[in-house]
Design a protein that fits this description.
Structural class: alpha+beta
Bound molecules: adenosine-5'-triphosphate, magnesium ion
Number of strands: 11
Shape: elongated
Distance between the termini: 99 Å
Strand content: 5-15%
């Protein structure tokens, strides 16, 4: 009887792995066999186990080896002709299979934190210890892949219980201090799954947030957490949560979630949806849009300091710093006056990135003024169409016409482009006639 029960249990756990696409499942079986050959225990671990149990898609196959993970990764790479990158410091390796599939293989390890908020030192350890160093119980489960144990769930810390109870729970009281990125991770999972922070966990999180541990996080790590949070399907509630827990101060101490900011941030999903639907070729850096919306009412000095704190890339920094005044100026002109010429619209918007244009739209969406909103949408649509227009003549033609190169080139070609955009001229011949009439240039 007991044996039958155990068998039934095992079958159920196998069913969980069957939720993977067939070819992934076969690959995992093969890797399990390979692990037996190599004499090591192999596990699927972390987020993918959680998502399998939640029946959510997750294509990140994180594996961990009790034994030498890097040696096992070499074995897999040889067998499958996969590319291999090794990170000795963390005893992990990343495989890239010929079909493009990426897979991380780690060595089960324990971590010790010499100081809060800095990266830990690691030592090989058992799978149980490896699971204990993880952030939350729901992320601290493993599934064994060795043939005899295929699909066995390792859940020493109540991960399945917490999944059922829809709860985020840390494994020990020092967790948020050890690694303050977990504060942001907690919010990320809470909002993504609609889970709740368990009571003690919430208290520990609030305590850790009240200290300045987060300040000690390096810029790239803080940036990573913030942008991951803002890359979630619906970051608006996560941002409100950051504000509620007074975490925005770690981006900049004067960053405030005022009513106006809240209105803009809340309008971003609508603005993004309209943009994506209307301009399907435009690729938007969504997390940056949220960051711009969040800092859209801050002074340039605050925004600049926030950019430095987050060590944003040059491209992102350019975007975020352009989000403020220029957007407001353009918005004002475009919604106050119905008779701006297409070339004027072009001039107002040409310096703005698409991300800034989405923020501009979000600002108007948030104002709930239907007529102005539809006017703005018309302007945006016209602008995106017009911005591909080019003049037929170039600087070289001006040179041929005997004009000395200099700043006036910009002015003249600008006027030419304006006339094109406004539809006053439509051909190269028109352009030449325009230059002759306006600037006396012939050639
Ligand atoms: P996502 O679905 O967002 O990728 P995930 O749970 O897979 O979520 P990852 O950042 O991909 O998160 O990390 C994989 C696993 O590594 C986690 O499930 C968790 O077990 C562990 N982990 C990641 N970051 C931390 C951390 N800061 N502290 C402790 N454990 C962590
Ligand atoms: Mg993951």
């Amino acid at each position: 009887m007991l044996q039958w029960r155990a068998m039934k249990h095992r079958m159920n756990q196998n069913d969980v792995l069957r939720r993977l696409p067939q070819e992934r499942l076969s690959l995992l079986r093969e890797l399990g066999n390979l692990a037996d050959e190599g004499g090591v225990s192999l596990y699927l671990v972390g987020g993918v186990v959680r998502d399998l149990l939640l029946k959510r898609e997750n294509w990140d196959l994180d594996l961990t080896v009790e034994g030498d993970g890097i040696a096992f990764a070499h074995l897999v790479a040889d067998r499958y002709g996969a590319g291999l990158a090794v990170f000795e410091r963390f005893t992990t390796a990343r495989l890239t299979f010929p079909d493009g599939l990426k897979m991380d293989i780690a060595t089960t390890r324990r971590e010790s934190y010499a100081q809060p908020a800095v990266l830990p030192t690691v030592q090989p350890a058992s799978i149980e210890e490896d699971l204990y160093r993880r952030d939350f119980t729901i992320n601290a489960m493993a599934m064994q892949l060795n043939p005899g144990q295929f699909g066995r769930v390792l859940d020493a810390y109540g991960g399945q219980r917490d999944l059922r109870a829809r709860t985020i729970r840390v494994l020990h009281a020092g967790s948020f201090q050890d690694d303050p990125t977990r504060i942001f991770r907690a919010i990320r999972f809470e909002q993504r799954f609609g889970f709740r922070l368990e009571r003690t966990t919430f208290r520990l999180l609030a305590q850790a947030a009240a200290t300045n541990f987060i300040q000690q996080l390096s810029g790239p790590r803080l940036q990573n957490e913030i942008l991951l949070l803002f890359a979630e399907h619906d970051p608006v509630r996560a941002i409100a949560r950051l504000a509620q827990l007074q975490l925005l101060r770690f981006l900049h101490r004067r960053l405030c979630y005022t009513k106006t900011v809240k209105r803009v941030v809340t309008a971003v999903p609508k603005a993004l949806a309209w943009w994506a639907h209307r301009f399907q070729d435009s690729v938007i850096d969504r997390p940056i849009v949220y960051l711009m919306a969040l800092s859209s009412e801050s002074s340039p000095a605050v925004v600049a300091a926030m950019i430095r704190r987050l060590v944003l890339s040059r491209e992102q920094a350019k975007n975020v710093s352009a989000g403020g005044r220029r957007v407001d100026r353009a918005l004002k002109k475009l919604t106050n006056n119905a008779t701006v010429r297409p070339s004027q619209v072009y001039r107002l918007l040409a310096d703005l990135s698409d991300e800034a244009l989405v923020v501009l739209l979000a600002k108007q969406v948030g104002m709930k003024h239907r007529v102005r909103l539809s006017l703005l949408k018309q302007h945006l649509a016209a602008y995106v169409k017009n911005r591909t227009i080019k003049t037929a003549l170039t600087g070289r033609d001006l040179e041929t016409m005997g004009l000395k190169p200099g700043p006036q080139y910009r002015t003249i070609l600008g006027k030419l482009l304006d006339a094109r955009i406004d539809g006053m001229i439509t051909s190269e011949a028109d352009e030449r006639a325009f230059l002759q009439k306006r600037f006396g240039l012939v050639g």
